[in-house]
Amino acid sequence: MSSAVKQQDAAPLDLRAVYAPIEADLAEVERILKAQLHSKYPLVDEMVRYGFQLSGKRLRPALLLLSAKAVGEVTRDHLLLAAVVEMIHTATLVHDDVLDEADVRRHLATANTRWNNEASVLLGDFLFTHAFYLASTLDSTWACQAIGRATNIVCEGELRQIANRGNFALSELEYFDIVAAKTAELCACCCQLGAHYAGADEETAERLARYGRGLGTAFQIADDLLDVVGDEGEAGKSLGTDLEKQKPTLPLIRTLERAGTEQRERILAILQNGAADRYRQLMPWMRRFGAVGYARGQARSFATSARRELVCLSKSPALESLILLTKFVVLRSH
Amino acid sequence: MSSAVKQQDAAPLDLRAVYAPIEADLAEVERILKAQLHSKYPLVDEMVRYGFQLSGKRLRPALLLLSAKAVGEVTRDHLLLAAVVEMIHTATLVHDDVLDEADVRRHLATANTRWNNEASVLLGDFLFTHAFYLASTLDSTWACQAIGRATNIVCEGELRQIANRGNFALSELEYFDIVAAKTAELCACCCQLGAHYAGADEETAERLARYGRGLGTAFQIADDLLDVVGDEGEAGKSLGTDLEKQKPTLPLIRTLERAGTEQRERILAILQNGAADRYRQLMPWMRRFGAVGYARGQARSFATSARRELVCLSKSPALESLILLTKFVVLRSH
Q1: What is the ipTM of this complex?
Q2: What is the pTM of this model?
């Protein structure tokens, strides 16, 4: 957790407590994942099992199952679909590893570069295709369509993100729109699947989808913030990675929007100077324009909007957990 | 076309003639692909349209449509599914670009490495997910299941292939098995989809699937052969690429199987000596053991087996084309 965020909220949330209403269901999802993700070929089996361990929090299965439980009962279909969305999320994580140019460079310096890079692409594809196969074992095409559409939007969002590398004229709204696609859409899909397969009416399912979208957006803004203010040890990645990739995120977009013409040019010069400590050179500017606090405020605002979508639901432990998650996502992002 | 192959068969086949019975259907598939593969975001749109141009022969849509026409009528479902299998094939092509380590190295030397590498992974994912979405717009989950299962086997086959890099003890049967998975399974799936959605009985659909599997295996053996004997200009890639990647293919496997203990050690020494002209050093050994002719014979043998599966079908121009394809795949492989 970022120390800056920690200061504002003294008591960190325990995710296990949030997941308590679906503890047994999540355990069953783990069993399904274990049973599904294997290969009779030892080396393939090793890779697939490795991929399965990559993800951590099981946030997407939890969203699906909590949404189900908040409106009805968790069924066998829910458990399968929870495994499906986790496979898809893991596939995108595995492919993100390939996307990391810095990482590729480091790998090239080692002996087994090719293996890592190629294995990541194929492993991601294996997980994607297995997820789609599993979704197609349900009775109707409903889940396949929802998942196919959502994952396609995710990919488009990621493509838009790389298309906007180095585009420091990206507006805040465009940034939110990309985040909504690349991160929030799968969360929205999870909530909608959970609600739909628990027999929710269309309006409730739509509301839960909007909850997931708001939550996912807040989550991603907070995640991007970690790159600026985060604790390296806890976030598990180095600061300024987004900057190194010329990826405009909210604190930077805000700084540039608030800067005057001359200041803007000085900031852009830092962004383009290629210095190793660009990140440190930028921090005073972000501080001057209160960009970190602003981004945190935006994350909270999306989380609050998400929470408001839940008013239609009756009181239950699952509802309580969905509410707690809106706090969790702005506190932690890894 | 490889000159070695050309010598044996004087008259090259015209693929347009083979596709004649489904010419109008293929044109409609092109329209569907064009209508489906776009994005409202200009840069994404450019990438997606680029991906769409990558593939050439439209072999997989042709297999699906010819199989349909050989047993019944081509329907709207067939046309959609033909677009789906082409998208999936293109996705694997795009991801193969990422897999090419030599290529990655070359890209790293250029300015826009990251763009190319990252864009390829995401573009492939975009095509995969769009294909699955499109398949899920059909009435039942039948096509989704068949396609999900087949593409998962394809990925497993590709993973097995990279797991066997540098494994020069790979047996011929293991090689055939990997080829059947990574290349032939999607061809089998195309034929089965074509037959199934044209109302074929299960046995006929199964026979056509086996036809596709045999044809795809023959195609891949011939493709691997091009790496050894191919015409660089026509094949569009340099000779010895598989060797450079330490990928054991049939001519090499055969050479090693026929070599005596001492000869085998000398061949393995060439494979491991890292010399730029390893390929040329190996050629005399392949020639000595007739490995090229043997591999060509195996390709023909798989093509013949494929052809035999067609005996259940009544005479028609589509059947004629399916038969011609068994000749085509061993003549050309690009």
Answers
A1: 0.89
A2: 0.89
